[in-house]
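Aim 2, interim progress: modelling of the S-adenosylmethionine-bound target.
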Amino acid sequence: MKDYGEQCIGLERTGGDMSDRLAKSRPWIAAMRHPKKFWQYLRYIFKYPHLFKVSEKVEGLISFVLGVFLYECVLNSPSSSPNVVDVGSYKGLSTCYLSLAAVQVGKRIKSFELFSGLPMCDPCLDRGFYKGQFASTISDFESQAETYGCREVIDLVVGDARQTMLPALGDEGFSVAFLDMDVYEVTREVLLQLWSIAKGNETILIHDVNSLGVRKAIDEFHTLSNNRVPETILFKGTVSRLDIPPLSMK
Ligand SMILES: C[S@@+](CC[C@H](N)C(=O)[O-])C[C@H]1O[C@@H](n2cnc3c(N)ncnc32)[C@H](O)[C@@H]1O
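Predicted structure of the complex, ligand included:
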């Protein structure tokens, strides 16, 4: 496994309240400590002003640089499946980034969200998380996706992704999946479901892999898939990228 080190210079939370405003100054403070990363950050702002606007305006829990990374993964996906999966869309931030790429390459975003927050948490594995955390509303999602994303290519599926995901994907599978559900049980189940329908060349990105539960879910996935899927660790150990091998090697 490779650690690509710190590719993100702060800004994990975005949005409109006071704590968000404080969080927004973090990249500039970080820039003083990491000038090289600061130039990369500036380069992204000039290259993707529309994505920067998303990071400034849309409330959510992923950074601008991770948003750019998701966007580029969709643009460069080697898979021909029209489906891009976003599990745990919360108020729609990750969905906005993904949808702005999907519309350019003829794909659709399948967004899965409960809106009642985290369904369960193991007190040991999912330390720091609690049941009901990150509850949000459909109208929050809709207004942000409508204003800052590309709503026409988004299919929102409300409910538990463990029950709704496979029927929503049908026979078309997926090309890119972003999993951001924070907890062991859900991550494990969704990951295994994606593996069961993978046809080869898909990319799975998982957030918060520095959390014990999410890490355990991925480790069990490696065991159950006989270690056939290479993993790359990114963003200072917080994001994992799984590259499903071509069909013949699956
Ligand atoms: C950290 S938030 C996701 C942040 C979001 N990706 C963003 O860009 O801001 C985690 C979300 O996962 C959702 N979630 C957890 N388990 C789920 C499940 N089984 N099905 C659907 N959504 C789930 C929660 O409701 C919560 O909104």
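The two ends are 19 Å apart (CA to CA). Residues 60-62, 87-90, 93-94, 112-114, 117-119, 134, 136, 160-162, 180-182, 186 surround S-adenosylmethionine (CB under 6 Å).
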